[in-house]
Amino acid sequence: MAVKTLTINDRLVSARESETILEAARDAGIHIPTLCHLEGLSDVGACRLCLVEIAGSHKLQPACVTKVAEGMEVKTDSEKLQKYRRMIIEMLFAEGNHVCSVCVANGNCELQDLAVEMGMDSVHLNYQFPQRTVDLSHDRFGIDHNRCVLCTRCVRVCDEIEGAHTWDVAGRGHNAHVITDLNQPWGTADSCTSCGKCMMACPTGAIFAQGTTVSEMTKERDKLEFINTARKNQEWIL
Amino acid sequence: MSKLLDKITIHLDNAGQIEDARFHVTEFRGFEKFCEGRPLWEMPGITGRICGICPVSHLLASAKAGDRLLWQLIFLLLRRNYVV
Amino acid sequence: MNKLKLATVWLGGCSGCHMSFLDLDEWLIDLATQVELVYSPIADIKEYPEGVDIVLVEGAVANEDNLELIKKVRDRSKILISFGDCAVTGNVTALRNPFGDPEPFLQRSYLEAADIQNQIPHEPGIVPALLEQVKPVHDVVEVDVYLPGCPSNANHIRAALEMLLMGEVPHLSGKLIRFG
Lengths: 238, 84, 180
Prior knowledge:
heterotrimer, B: alpha+beta, two-stranded antiparallel ribbon, about 15% strand, C: about 180 residues, alpha/beta, Rossmann fold, five-stranded parallel beta sheet, two-stranded antiparallel sheet, globular, Oxidoreductase (chain C), iron-sulfur cluster binding (chain C)
């Protein structure tokens, strides 16, 4: 197994050949903010929050899907990146209807945490106020599309860990939204096993357990971690 | 009261008699409409924001209304399944 | 030394942020020794005065009265603080925005849901017309300090005001700028 040596923020870091910049940075204790990345799922580079600067490249690269290379010089926290990241969060807030104060995930929301991290005290883009729907047809869960940031974590967790592939994305651009089965009410989606992994994976209050009120929703992400560890170490094989 | 909920105006005529009096409450936000279609359990959190001075009364009212709805639901389910 | 002139303004909101401000309790007495309250919904003053040093603006811009007042407030004040989530983001006041036109809201509230006297209030010059879209304060006028929260935590208000009293315009960060 080849080892690559690179510098991240002027620090020498060694990483396995197969690792991404994000993994190498996290192993070295260097923080890179992420939203669509979730441990145990494949990465898609959808949210662009983990963009980093690589010397010699004029393009910013998403750390979660860029593999390490020998002699790479990476900057994760330059002023330009901070500006970009704040703008990304502002765009996410302006694009949906994110009303933190009356959201089930208030206080347990990754988007809200990221806004604090980026120092976002206000949004200077025009709020879009899209008209989106709430689907409460499922017995145990609900989805409020107003709070969806299209990170596609639910799509990936359902496909890769549960193996049901109930979730998918329909529409393009402004019209993109997550759907269940053949774009039908969640309650009628036969492939859904009601496992709740999409709810655990969802970074915001978009997918929630029915019966939770404002600020009450916790994501129980340790359950996902448990399954991931079990799969990785094949702990169920005797 | 006039200091908290906007203002009260009293108009007098020339003889000093009250001609018109108005209680100005112009704080219209449309909770009646935008709450429609939202999950029942979020209602106490949303209606609590009707008034910052008396959020508890709005919160309790909506919690009680929600309880009544659920009670009706249980009643209907019971009737459908168990009552001959 | 002249006392700083402090004002608080209530636009389209629930007044919860003012309640949170009053939650500062005994610190308000300290504050009163350093500032003069020149305009506030909790004081009986009819007209927004000139030469205000610090103004806390609660609520979003939801109707024509709000719009008129906030422009006057901006003209006559040095430091304008966008106070609470409604002022900063529109928050609950802006929940009607995705529906567009406010007319269906008036119909639902005053006609369909009314028990008695079902009519939409219409008194030009007295009842202010609703704006098509509720706007956060910084969409209409320039804002100097943002203090979000629903409501803003009393200690956060104090932290911001203390910095202002020492003569600096605070750049808030961390939990002080957390929405919700």
